[in-house]
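Researcher: Go.
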Amino acid sequence: MEEEDQRKVTDLVIELVRRLLSQQNPTPNPPHLSQSLRYAFRILSSRLTPSVSPDADAVAESIKRCLATQGNSSDALTFADLYSKFASKNGPGSVNNKWAVLYLLKIISEDRKNAVNGMDSSVFLPNLGLNDDETGNDSRVLNGKDNRDKTWKKGFLLVSKDPENLREISYREFGNLVKDENDVTEEVLVKDVLYACQGIDGKYVKFDSSLDGYALSDLVKVPRATRTIVRKLCELGWLFRKVNGYISESMDGFPAEDVGTVGQAFCAALQNELSEYYKLLAVLEAQSMNPIPLVSENASSGNYLSLRRLSVWFAEPMVKMRLMAALVDKCKALRGGAMAGAIHLHAQHGDLLVHDFMRRLLRRVCSPLFEMVRSWVLEGELEDIFAEFFIVGQPVKVESLWREGYRLHAGMLPLFISQSIAQRILRTGKSINFLRVCCDDRGWADAATEAVAAAGVTTRRGGLGYGETDALESLVMEAAKRIDKHLLDVIYKRYKFKEHCLAIKRYLLLGQGDFVQYLMDIVGPELSEPANTISSFKLAGLLESAIRSSNAQYDDPDILDRLRVKMMPHGTGDRGWDVFSLEYDARVPLDTVFTESVMTRYLRIFNFLWKLRRVEHALIGAWKTMKPNCITSHVYTKLQRAVKMQLFSTLRRCQVLWDEMNHFVTNLQYYIMFEVLEVSWSNFSNEMEVAKDLDDLLGAHEKYLHSIVEKSLLGERSQTLYKSLFVLFDLIMQFRSHADRLYEGIHELQARTVESSSNPRDKNKPRKTKDKFSEPGYWVTEGRKALTQRASEFLQNMGQDLDALATDYKSLLEGFLALLPVQQHIDLKFLLFRSLMSFSLCCHLNEQSPDDPVDI
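Model: Structure:
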């Protein structure tokens, strides 16, 4: 098969030579046929190769462009059709080396064109002559100048020897011309450029501070093109000078200046790239030792270095050096995470070379940053000597460790770490430190180990790096989930957080009814005294008695030990009721939740509830005073009817006013205890069950406390309503004083009436004791007539006072109800509904006739 193909190729060559020779002599057997055949086979069997890539499609495209530019569009289309058929043929009988055939046809076409234009083709083709024994000594295929011109006109060329050395003469003349135009050889300029690219001044190319760059001296005579290419090549030296200067300045200033670990890593990454750059310069410097040949046969294959070749070598290093110089300018005033983020911005590039270079650089730069993240998330250690990390710690008290000990530094957060992941990183490290410092717990280490195993990452240094965002996120998520769960378990089980919250609700929010009632009963007389005369130790003893006398005695002793009496700052005229309060001692780590500000808000709620309970207690005390008067009704039969009716009317007014006030206070207390406290506690309990971390728990407690404050009229927007309510409370306390005074007078009247109706002999007996009724001028010492007169005046005055109290109470209640609809909290509608019902009842009672009978 191969022999058959060889014969076909031979026949094709013979036919091609025959047709070329027939153009000169159209005879069946042209002269010199055998000689031309031997010459053709010598060319085909030689090792000469064209300086183009063996691409058939590229050669075909070049031929089509040539035909199209010459105006032969139809020929170009015909050639394209023929080439498609030629290229599609494969297998036996097809041409394997298709691009060589096309290239041969293209060269023949160009030779014909050059022959028409009278060009000397010896410039383009090598000088391959025939052997002496085949053609004779110094003989040529074409003898004489005329024959050579004739063959050029026929469109083909036969190469012969050059006995006159015309080509070498031309080379020498060209060399002399180059020397006349240049004071410096190209080899010297190449070496100077290589020196400049290393930041070293050469003999002719030196750094010009006025131009801020390397330049060729104006005194050196070189062509403009040479000067331009030298200036472009020396840009690499200027960039190298900037990058290398930054590295030297940063490293020389360490550790006196805060370069930081990220800055050191950046300098190390730049130095590593410069090391590769030095290797390239070493190779180029070795090549620069070879002389640069002039235009000759072997000029394209020599291992030399010219300025143009240097520009090709410098193409890739120039891109990298420009990137490094831009990064140096960007990062001069940055450090830590801010520096890594600035470098990351340059990595978003479509060029694959730039992308790979920046990725390699960033992996080195971000290594310290990711090591800080690993150490913080798994160990809770903040290894940040130079303040480069996006988490900042500060010395605080133990109770403020969680809230104020650590925070995010937004300026140091790199862009490749999202805000949500940064928050998880912050909380995970805080949880470890909180467990270690506040809870004295070491169980977080096992949770961290489990997180590493679940995330599938290594715990060794350098295990995380730039570009491994998924691995970082997986590690942070697993560590946060396990460590947060362990922290909540410690808070709930070891430190009994839920039990302490319930204890605060029972005692500070007065949810333990029997305890509160007994406490008010036993501390009431003591708190009625001036505040500056009350002993806090005595109150503490009374508190202990109230605990032992109620169901509170069955609570955990640790909880009861935290409950204490607190006397608030007081002035000269304050009473014990105004300064008495209870406090709960929340120790570490519970004081992270129950901070001073939180306990201050609890104190405000306690004072409000204590005031409400005090008003309720006062009304109950008034009722106890008013109820037993039914046993004295038979005494007033001897009084005049007018006085008796006046007494009944006053008692009725007092009873009705008490009913109004009691109804309002009862509804208000129901709203506070059930609509506010119980609902808020239920919501808080549900949120505690679903809390996933300490921040969720703090948020749930803050929401719980905020809900109580707002619904209890203690918020900033309810201050007017709050003040109006306390004026109502003060009026109710005044009513209690008037009611006590009224019934005290009635009891005195009863005693004197009984005394005046007794045996006259008893009147003559001397009194053994002296009381206030025997004082001169007292209204029960002047006889029955005077007794009746004074009783009428007393009841009239008390009736007027009660009427004034009723009027003021109605006015204040109307004002209070008018303020409720403008409140924005929706739960206040329950209070409005209940208060309106109370007000309607009061109006109904007031519409009754004062002469209606009253059960006394």
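Model: Residues 184-293+304-333 form one domain.
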